[in-house]
Amino acid sequence: MESKFIWTDLSTFDLSKATDFYHKVFGWSFSEDRSGYFNCSLGRDPCAGLYEMPAFFQKIRMPSFWMTYISVNNIESITAKARELGGKVELEEDNPRGRIALIRDPAGAGVTCYEGDEILSKPNLERPGSWCWTELMVSSISLVRKFYETLFDWRFEAHSGNRYNIKTATGVLIGAAQVAGKEEKGSKEFWAAYFAVSDLGETIHTIKEAGGCVEGIYTHEDGAQALAYDDQGAAFFLIQKDGPSAADSSSFDSLDQSSGKLK
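Below the sequence we write its predicted structure tokens.
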């Protein structure tokens, strides 16, 4: 089995506020399992998860965050190899859905490895409201390239500008890595969760009305995109497939970008 991105979920402080926010923004419905984990769905299709941040992370003042999951064959071998490559293993546990380990790469970006067969989701760019893409926002590719290529048998291939495609050993495109500044990623290195929308401008206004904010709008070949934060500070990205071209700056005039920050 090749290691691919299979899931994303949100560690949040207030579950009631989080379900209300994402229902308004993406139209999600929610169902809670016996462990207190909420499955987020579009109709009958699972699209993400959310849960209350563990007390340990709250104690060390961890901000609310979206997390990406990667499928692996053996958690024990992955965690051992991650440590050898300069990564940190912050959490290892068994849960009702399988075995997981939270790993941080040498630059500090966190990702969860998953061993099991209960999570079968995959990114979906075609359906608005769905998790659709995963991209590493990092200040230097050289800090992390060897780590991921060795750990998961991936390949980083230069694509355009400071962006790299991430492919499996058999050439399947599964994500990307971007050398990004603070204006694009903030002060942290992280794996970004992207969500598809049908109308970027409309979604931004909904986010503002729900108490969130947007700190950047830009375009490239994949469509119009924006970095957003929910009302508890968790960062995520929006992407409108086939959105306005980068050359058409007037496309976003109605979004009031005078300061580059929408609140």
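The mean pLDDT is 88.
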